[in-house]
Design goal:
The protein contains 20 helices and 11 strands. By secondary structure, the chain is an alpha/beta fold. It is elongated and about 90 Å long.
Length: about 400
């Protein structure tokens, strides 16, 4: 078969069902080979659209997206999509046509150094020199794109290589010298992160897009729920935790919510999960003073799905009362608003007078007067302590008896 037919055959063997692209002269042999293939092609109106569509497909399907473009301006139009996939850790395989190998480096019509131009924002790139290399290149490209931190891989194929004959043999496994992505959490780093969590007074989890990429949302929610640590998210991390989750405080950043940004500013330890420390959102904040940034726990799929002992190293279970004692009064109000009367009464009985006062003040400031009313109806010691705290608030804030306590 020809090199172009080998490319299509490799796509089929990788389970690719859908590719996005825009044809051109230097990639026509591949398009000819697609005719009669079970791989479905979606024609876009510009090559950048092919890259973005493949990225969206990869996000939804969980498999590497594939996009196709021709040489020269077709390949350069892909660059924005490749850069976006690289920054967002999206598995992508881009196949571009190229002028014949005998014309490389001669500045002929529609010749561009595609691999050189894409080097800053791809995980790896190939310039196929022989058709016999294509099966290995395709196998490696899909492996690199989907393993470790996912990202785009570029394959540049000269038109004469597409037309060259070869004996097709698709490899069963990949052996790339020097490429050994981490697939298991580092026990020492995890223990260090847990020690920092145990020592911190106001820890905070920041969930990024890596949580969604790894399908680690359930693990993260279970860990945060057991440890009682509030969660904020970046824009890429929206959806990792449901908005109704009691520990979720919203998205951070200039377009985020006030409670999330305030929690980020007041936290004394920030645990990044599936997010980079140098993300633009986090750079908005000054993390000096006593803020410690724990080692990032990379939310790579293999790491989370195998043996990452997040639950095994869970810190003490934090009740609503200890949320208040740690200074997370807004979180305490939100959690307390969902508790039953008996649960709330138990919380009050276990809460220090200072923390109880701060909790009631936060409830008043947040307009959660119904919560305070319910607390005011309690009897026994809890009711007396609530009444004392309310009396102190009335005196300090010069409140009238009409305040619906």
């Amino acid at each position: 078969m020809t090199g172009a037919q080998a490319i299509v055959k490799a796509l089929e063997m990788e389970g690719v069902e859908l590719v996005f692209g825009y044809p051109g002269a230097a990639i026509c042999p591949v398009y000819d080979a697609l005719r009669g293939s079970r791989v479905r092609h979606v024609l876009v109106r510009q090559e950048q659209n092919a890259g973005h569509a493949a990225s969206g497909y990869a996000r939804i399907s969980g498999r590497p997206g594939v996009c196709i473009a021709t040489s020269g301006p077709g390949a350069t139009n892909l660059m924005t999509a490749l850069a976006g996939a690289y920054m967002d850790s999206i598995p992508l395989v881009a196949i571009t046509g190229q002028v014949a190998t005998s014309l490389l480096g001669r500045d002929v019509f529609q010749e561009v150094d595609t691999t050189g131009a894409a080097e800053p924002f791809v995980k790896h790139s190939y310039l196929a020199a022989r058709a016999s290399d294509l099966p290995r290149i395709l196998k490696e490209a899909f492996c690199i794109a989907a393993t470790g931190r996912p990202g785009p891989v570029l394959i540049d194929v000269p038109v004469d290589v597409q037309e060259e004959e070869l004996d097709f043999c698709y490899p069963d496994r990949v052996d790339i010298p020097g490429y050994r992505p981490t697939v298991k959490g580092h026990a020492g780093q995890i223990r260090r992160a847990c020690q920092l969590l145990a020592e911190s007074a106001r820890p905070l989890i920041c969930a990024g897009g890596g949580v969604l990429t790894a399908g680690a949302g359930e693990v993260l929610r279970a860990f945060a729920g057991e440890a009682g640590i509030p969660i904020v998210s970046t824009m890429m991390g929206i959806g990792a935790v449901a908005p109704s989750h009691p520990n979720y405080m919203g998205m951070i950043g200039s377009h985020g919510v006030r409670s999330a940004n305030m929690a980020l500013r007041r936290a004394d330890l920030l645990l990044l999960v599936g997010e980079h420390r140098e993300t633009a959102t986090l750079r908005l904040y000054d993390f000096k003073s006593d803020l410690a940034v724990a080692d990032t726990l990379e939310a790579a799929a293999a790491e989370v799905q195998q043996e990452t002992p997040m639950g095994a190293y869970a810190v003490e279970f934090i009740t609503t009362s200890s949320h208040a004692q740690r200074g997370y009064y807004e979180v305490a109000v939100r959690i307390g608003y969902r508790r039953t009367l008996e649960q709330l009464q138990a919380v009050v009985n276990a809460t220090s007078p200072e923390a109880l006062y701060s909790l009631l003040a936060a409830a008043l400031d947040a307009g959660k007067t119904e919560l305070a009313v319910r607390m005011g109806y309690w009897g026994a010691d809890g009711g007396t302590r609530v009444e004392d705290a309310m009396a102190q608030l009335r005196e300090e804030r010069e409140l009238t008896e009409t305040v619906p306590w």
